UniProtKB/TrEMBL annotation:
<dbReference type="InterPro" id="IPR036514">
    <property type="entry name" value="SGNH_hydro_sf"/>
</dbReference>
<dbReference type="InterPro" id="IPR008265">
    <property type="entry name" value="Lipase_GDSL_AS"/>
</dbReference>
<dbReference type="GO" id="GO:0006629">
    <property type="term" value="P:lipid metabolic process"/>
</dbReference>
<dbReference type="InterPro" id="IPR051532">
    <property type="entry name" value="Ester_Hydrolysis_Enzymes"/>
</dbReference>
<dbReference type="InterPro" id="IPR013830">
    <property type="entry name" value="SGNH_hydro"/>
</dbReference>
<protein>
    <submittedName>
        <fullName>Arylesterase</fullName>
    </submittedName>
</protein>
<dbReference type="Pfam" id="PF13472">
    <property type="entry name" value="Lipase_GDSL_2"/>
</dbReference>
<feature type="domain" description="SGNH hydrolase-type esterase">
    <location>
        <begin position="6"/>
        <end position="170"/>
    </location>
</feature>
<dbReference type="GO" id="GO:0004622">
    <property type="term" value="F:phosphatidylcholine lysophospholipase activity"/>
</dbReference>
Length: 183
């Protein structure tokens, strides 16, 4: 059995939903439906996680034998206005740990964006940091995990931030589009 580790925050954890509605569980179903029964999805999503706490939290998952590492952190950094340089350093450290621990691992980095209504250069810098990391590390890339979901009332919980069950289906679809090419 090959493990696919989804390492993220509330988006990955499926905040406000049952585990079976969270997009990693939906990706597991897609794997099975497409004959990839030798893969097991591990959901390591933790609500509220930032890239800084993720650097340390990743250590408790390094004992696993991981074939594919899906890194889905950064949304909370953006919401809190954490400097993009800090977010970049933390994500790089997690990518480095993954490569050191699992030399043959395939990596998917899921990009995040914050609305352009945020004043100044922060939104643009935040969007670019994911693209730059993906290129620098030569990893697979989901440009914006919340594409078509962010800001869409009917695809989010009443808080307007966390995807509902229908929104999670789109997160699964965006991830599958990249994952299927590396299986």
């Amino acid at each position: 059995m090959k493990n696919i580790l989804f390492f993220g925050d509330s988006l990955t954890a499926g905040y406000g939903l049952s585990q079976s509605q969270a997009y990693p569980a939906l990706v597991q179903k897609m794997l099975e439906e497409n004959g990839y029964t030798n893969y097991k999805v591990v959901n390591a999503g933790l609500s509220g996680d930032t890239t800084a706490s993720g650097v340390y939290r990743l250590d408790k998952w390094l004992h696993l034998d991981v074939s594919i590492f899906v890194l889905v952190l950064g949304a909370n950094d953006g919401l809190r206005g954490i400097p993009t340089r800090e977010t970049t350093i933390n994500l790089q450290e997690m990518l480095d740990k993954a490569k050191r621990t699992w030399p043959d691992v395939k990596i998917i980095l899921s990009g995040m964006e914050i609305p352009d209504i945020v004043p100044g250069r922060y939104a643009a810098e935040f969007r670019m940091l994911f693209r730059e990391l993906a290129i620098k590390n030569n990893v697979h890339f989901v440009p914006f995990l919340l594409e078509g979901v962010a800001g869409m009332r009917h695809l989010n919980l009443p808080d307007g931030v966390h995807p509902n069950a229908e929104g999670q289906k789109l997160l699964a679809k965006h991830t599958w589009a990249v994952l299927k090419d590396i299986l």
